[in-house]
Amino acid sequence: MKTFLARLASLSLIFSSFALAEEQPNIVLIMCDDMGYSDLGCYGSEIKTPHLDSLAEGGFRFSHFRNTGRCCPSRASLLTGRHQHAVGMGWMTAVDEHRPGYRGQISSEVPTLAELLKEQGYSTYMSGKWHVTVDGAWKPEGSTPNGSYPTDRGFDEFYGSLSGGGNYYRPKGVRRNETSITEFPDDYYYTEAIDEHAVGFLKDHDTTMPFFLYLAHYAPHRPLQAPKERVDACRKRYAVGYDALREARFEALRQLSLIQPDPVLPVHHREYRKEERPSWDSLDSETQEKWITEMATYAAMIEIMDEGIGEIIEEIKSKGEFDNTLFLFLSDNGATNEGGLVSQLAAELSNTPFRSYKSKTFMGGISSPLIVHYPKALKKIGSGIVSAPTHITDILPTCLDLAGATYPETFKGADLLQPAGISIVPALNNKPLPERDFFFEHQTACAVISGDWKLVRASQGGAWELIHLKDDPFEQINLAKSHPKKVSELEKKWTQWADQNHVLPLSPSGLFWNKRVDKYTELNPDQSGRD
Fold it and tell me: How far is CA 249 from the centre of its chain?
């Protein structure tokens, strides 16, 4: 009886939210790569992103949205509404470990958002970075699709890379549907090509049907590459250095109500192993110049991405579909410190005000902007800031909710569990979301958020840190020694979640990329992703 009533309540919520719209919305889901929490103009940045800012101004910005901390896992959770390990994408696509949580690609036993929307009559398009097919399924010359390519997983049309990419002028693994592309024009730039193909899909779209466009940008992932004139146009704003810019972003975040008004900007000295974080003025001129060039290039890459998003918006407007299009924008993880001191200092600006970086489960790694814009059905409430804690697994249920669809009970003849995420539509209507815990793991970096408490560690060999987020949102004060019972309680919760979602056993924290790939390739020579 309780199950029936719960399902009835769920259906009531879905239909009541969908009743706000007269027809199924088009959906444009945009994910960028390795961009920090404060890197958009509408999140306090000096980077110029007018088109995304416009979506934010007319819609909602989320202040407590979390991802998985890394690219492949975030994509798996985004597409399935489940924790990454539960669908086989607990690490990266580099190797199939032949363990349930670590197959190197998303499970064929769980539907993707594209497959679900296609069943609802949507035309489905993807342009950009896929990165949820195991490398062994496409890297060998002459390999054939193994059932996990985008067109196998619900997309009618695809342009982009199966891998991480690797270069903006000559990217790797690029395909148009199943056909490999290896030759590029002289003026090719990957970000622009992703947007151009997305616009092309929309131009050819039959407007009698709703569409789902998954725009998965590679920018601003490394390597940092942009046309010289675009980089030069950004250089001047970074000459003041990262200390002044972090202060400016922090103040802007406070003015925008994206952080509480009373905290002080943290420095996060502990992220530097050998010495305290240097001030801008203490750097020599050569290091300062390297940092300016890095940030100017990074900013240019985001600005080019924003311009392309503007072209997609204009194409949708030209078809008279803008008011009935749901836009969602997020990043797969925080900015990366890969590249040494200069990159670490750049990432500290991008992740302002949070601690740490991509691949870690401190807030700098798992925090992302989230913009939701849907003129026809969602009315702006107050400041347009949603402070409810939310997670990347919530995107799929939210899209289904607004499309008037329910999650199936079976898929390919087998019973399905419901997604880990929930619809966040109530939060858009200024209603509370259910209280729940949030769990994280990547490369043995682990965390659980439960109410105002967070238990987190940098790696399997590291000690747990206990953070009281209400008083310490930037994770500076470790309370583990003074609250051992809370540590034990949260560790037990995390272990239970890990056991249920195929997280365990963890690979040794010292087993880094090449050694991990070599180990599991030696154990399992067939890396095609086929059982």
Answer: 21
